[in-house]
Amino acid sequence: MNVLIIDGQGGGLGKQLVSMCRAACQDSIITVVGTNSQATSAMLKAGADYAATGENAVLVGCRKADVIIGPIGIVIADALFGEITPKMATAIGQSEAKRILIPVNRCETLVAGVTEQQSAALLQHAIQLLQELN
């Protein structure tokens, strides 16, 4: 399975996702795309197979992925403090890949029904969903 993990800012969420995905789905190919080089570097150090940075990398990655994982902001233009371009959000939304979105209430996006949970619990649930797809 080709897993694409997308993150921005410092890449902290993506870094944790890569580590957890690597442990849970050892046969998966993990590609990461950071919206900036710091996020990409953090995710690559966590054990990704492939890494790239920026808008075009998201567009290409979305065409090749079976599953896309990231914070909910990756499908909202101008989210993550402006790091998600409209083209990125569209590519992710129109991808034929399954999407596993982490519901974080940040960057001016509040998700109804989502309480402030520990990120570890949210990430563990995301990995559980990924394993069910495998």
Task: Give the structure's gist in a few sentences.
This protein is of the alpha/beta class. It has 6 helices and 5 strands; from the N terminus they run E-H-E-H-E-H-E-H-H-E-H.
Commentary on this structure:
By secondary structure, the chain is an alpha/beta fold. It starts with a strand and ends with a helix. It has a single domain (2-133), classed as Rossmann fold, CATH 3.40.50. Strands 3-2-1-4-5 form a five-stranded parallel sheet, with helices on both faces. It has helices at residues 12-24, 37-45, 55-64, 79-82, 86-94, 119-133; strands spanning 2-7, 29-34, 50-53, 67-71, 98-102. It is globular. The protein is built from six helices and five strands. The model has no long low-confidence stretch (mean pLDDT 92).
What structural keywords apply?
five-stranded parallel beta sheet, Rossmann fold, 6 helices, 45% helix, alpha/beta, 134 residues
How many β strands by DSSP?
5
Spatial order of strands in the largest sheet:
3-2-1-4-5
Order of helices and strands: EHEHEHEHHEH
| Share in β-strands | 15-25%
**Which class of secondary structure composition applies to the elements?**
alpha/beta
Number of helices: 6
CATH architecture: 3-Layer(aba) Sandwich
Level of helix content? 40-55%
Counted up, domains total 1
Instruction: Give the rounded overall mean pLDDT.
Output: 92
Instruction: Show unreliable segments.
Output: none
CATH class: Alpha Beta
Query: Radius of gyration from the CA trace?
Result: 13 Å
Q: How far apart are the termini?
A: 7 Å
Q: What is the 3D form?
A: globular
Largest sheet: 5 strands, parallel
CATH structural fold name = Rossmann fold
